[in-house]
Amino acid sequence: MRPSKFERSEIHSIRLHVLPTDRFKTYAISAYIGTPLAEETVTPTALTPFVLRRGTQALPETKRFRERLDELYGAGFGFDIYKRGDYQIVQFRMDMIEDQYVSGTEPLLKQALKFLTEAITRPALENDHFVSKYVESEKQTLRKRIQSIINDKIRYAAERCLEEMCKNEPYRLHPLGQLDKLEKLDKQSLYSAYRQWLQSSPIDLYVVGNTTSEEVQSILRELLASERSENPAYVTKPAACGDKRDVNTVIERLEVGQGKLNMGLRSSITYGDERYAAALMYNGVLGGYPHSKLFMNVREKESLAYYASSRLDGHKGIITIQSGIEINNYEKAVSIIREQLDAMVRGEISDLELSQTKAMIVNQLKEIQDSAYEMIGFDFNSVLSGKERSIPELIAAVEAVTPQQIREVADDVCLDTIYFLRDKEGE
């Protein structure tokens, strides 16, 4: 039973995606809960999974909650919080060994789904609110996570560039929330926000393993109460250039020894667009890999940067360039990076750049098929974008991309913001 495609259904207003396969020795389960990025919800949404991991109504003590995972043959349970397009996504993950490898009575998939659904929908409570000590403890955890971004100047510069670029858009918000909003949250306000989040957010549940869609549906009917009335679809809003305008330049001064030069570019092309494969190639040729133009020209030939690369958010159409430079090399580095962007517009892409970039992207796509969670993550792109794509289809599309198609992407891309983090002393 090799992986073919996810079987889709809906149960209690939750989208269910099941991939029956005997390729892996474990069940991989992921629950995605998405929320439109918004000032008032981003921080309570970020704090919620930290509190949910502390216990359930059945296992209210954190120690007992974690011991239960050990009893389930060392099952894994965790979560991630990130941004995809204009959405803040909380992803819960659980992996559980398949029944055939252990001797037990109750099916392990059912036990795993029970643990996961109770962790999300039946949290430990006191007086009909979250447990106060859990909330205060996890506020401290999240506070440290946010502060660690500020202390890591590479991450800080990347976030500040997006903040300046998207200052009037939800995309400016960091998925971990804001420190000033975090301080004001308490067990009542957080529980109220949690209830609203669970009721109104899009929810997608993925299961990969030796099972069937019918079996998973049967288990979930038993485990879940029907409290939700609808499961909204995701909406994609590209970061298109609109009217061409002057590039926004921001210089920020902090105690740093090395300059951080970041640039933000806009495009109308997102994951659901037919030009997406060409956009992947554009980013790859520009700065996605060690053979790319930014690395070769800014770092290797001119020795201007300690690092130089680009990154694409395919659900927003934003490309970011990040580089670390000597502070007095700012003007020259900006000039050479802009030369690389102009070269892309002129279609100056060598056969070697084209073939190496295709090979790198295709290899990355093929590797996705070796991991259940990577396959889940790839498929979730279809849910986010409303565009069904298989890995073989995207590989074929990438291999077919021509230099002219990359040039057409370059025509759609515009430089929006230049952000430079430098020292306090210099001119």
From TrEMBL:
Organism: Paenibacillus residui
Protein name per Swiss-Prot or TrEMBL: EF-P 5-aminopentanol modification-associated protein YfmF
Domain Peptidase M16 C-terminal residue range list: 184-359
InterPro entries, per database record: Metalloenz_LuxS/M16, MPP/UQCRC_Complex, Peptidase_M16_C
